[in-house]
Structure formats: structure tokens, C-alpha cells
Amino acid sequence: MGEFSAGKSTLIHLLIGQSPLPVKVTATQLPPVRLSYGSAPAWREDRFGRTEPVEMDDLHRLSSAETRLIQIHAEAEILKLCDLIDMPGISDPNMGSEVWENAIGLADGVIWCSHATQAWRQSEAAVWDMFADRLGETSLLLLTRFDKLVTERDRARVLRRVRRETEGLFADICPIALTDALDARDNPARWAASGADGFGHALRQVLRLLGATANDRDAPVLLDPDWRVGGAGMPVRPRRVQIDESRTRSPRPLRAQRPGAAPPPA
Ligand SMILES: Nc1nc2c(ncn2[C@@H]2O[C@H](COP(=O)(O)OP(=O)(O)OP(=O)(O)O)[C@@H](O)[C@H]2O)c(=O)[nH]1
Ligand SMILES: [Mg+2]
């Protein structure tokens, strides 16, 4: 989640090692897009919870007025541990807040992207205030475009201020230069300098907390270039995380039945 243009889609690209949507789609405003492991065809869920298959080439035609969720699939390692939802910007004037409020009801944790040069605006704090109680312990604050802060002094100052203003609201704060990280996969020093290493560790901690652990404790750190290699291995359903419903503040939309899937257990 985060403001318009805060780096949400770039982050998804970094996490799954590819741009999940056809190029012409990423340029438009989309409803929330959920990514799950596998190669199943895409589908959409309308405002009434009805689902229907969609062609990837038609995604750019879907508006948030009629579609509340787009579901697509990719064979990326991280999707064996969790689903990812790419959300529209929180203060996009063309999108009502119910659009992202619906989707955040599905979330077990949030990676909040905030522009480092103007981090943690009032608009962000106001939205997160609605969800921090339920999701704060399993959520991370990413200070994106950290490369735009050029002096060490500026970096330290921004980090100090944001730490102070968000105390207790997130499990961790991670400064990151997302575009540097995307370019630096084969260069360990640049990769670490981009903040991707630190973020990988923090994300792993959160996933552990949620019970979505990898089998192997010595498995490579998330975001390591090896993690993104898709294709090999058995399609595995991402393990759903158990939620303590008593802590749920925001309403959870009913999970719509996927086309062709067996009816959910009563
Ligand atoms: N220099 C720099 N550029 C970045 C960084 N993260 C994202 N960008 C650039 O910022 C622009 C917006 O990034 P997106 O990932 O599309 O942002 P978004 O949050 O998905 O935007 P919307 O979906 O439109 O709300 C792109 O041109 C990115 O390449 C970063 O850490 N450093
Ligand atoms: Mg985006």
C-alpha cells in the first residue's frame, strides 16, 4: 500500500522477479491485483463478489468501479509463502477508498511504501491509523526512493523523524532504493547498499511471525536473486495464514468462489 507512485508496483516486480502485468496494463489505474502461486488463468471479482475469467490482454479495460479484485498467478518462489496484493494509491482522486478498504480486509500484513523525500505524510498516517491495530505487528514501512536523499545527514534525519512518528505502528522500517535493487541483482555490494538485503530479512521475520516459514531454516534470504527463479518445482498452494478474528477491525469481504473450484467447506 501507499500513496500514488510510491513504488508499490516496482516492489512487486522486485519480489517476484518480473513485472506481473502486461506493459500496457501497468500504465493504467487498476483495481487491487492479487498474485498467487501457479499458472492458473486470471479472473476478476465484481462488486457483488461474483467472479469470472478474464484475459490478461483485457485487464486494462477493467475499472475499479466494477471490479473489486483481479486475481493473477505467477510461478515465483515468494508466492509459495504468501500471496501479494498490489494496491491502488491511497489518495488516487479517481478511486474511492472502498476499493482498497475491501482488499485490505484480505491482508495479513502490509508493506507500506512511502516516498523517502516526503515520508509519512498526514494522509498516510490517517489511513494507517484505521489498520495499525490489526496489522501493525506484521507490517513493514518501506522508505522508497532512498537514493533521492543524497547526504548521509539527510538520510539519518529522515529515518530519525519517521521512526519517531511511526513508533509502534510497524514491525520494522526499511529504507530502500527499489530501482537500484532491481538493477543490482548480480552485484552483492550494490544489492546490500540498495537496502534490499535489510528488507529481505525484515520480510522474512514477518512471514515467520505469520507462520509462512520456508522448510529450510538456511534457505536463501528472501529477495536473493535465486528466489525469483520461477518455473521449476511443483505448483504449491500458498499456505493461508491463520488470523485471530477477534483482532479484526476492518470488515473482511467474503472470499468469492473461484471459477471451476470446489465449493468452500460449510
Ligand atoms: N529512484 C527511484 N525511483 C523509484 C523507486 N521506486 C520506484 N521508483 C520509480 O517511481 C515510479 C513509480 O513507481 P511505481 O512502482 O509505479 O509506483 P506505484 O506506487 O505502483 O504507483 P501507482 O500504482 O501509480 O500508485 C517508477 O518510475 C519507478 O521506477 C526508488 O526506490 N528509487
Ligand atoms: Mg502501481
Automatic annotation (TrEMBL):
Domain Dynamin N-terminal: 2-144
Pfam family, one: Dynamin_N
Residue span of region Disordered: 233-266
Record field: compositional bias (Low complexity): 251-260
Protein name according to UniProt: Dynamin N-terminal domain-containing protein
Species annotation: Rhodovulum viride
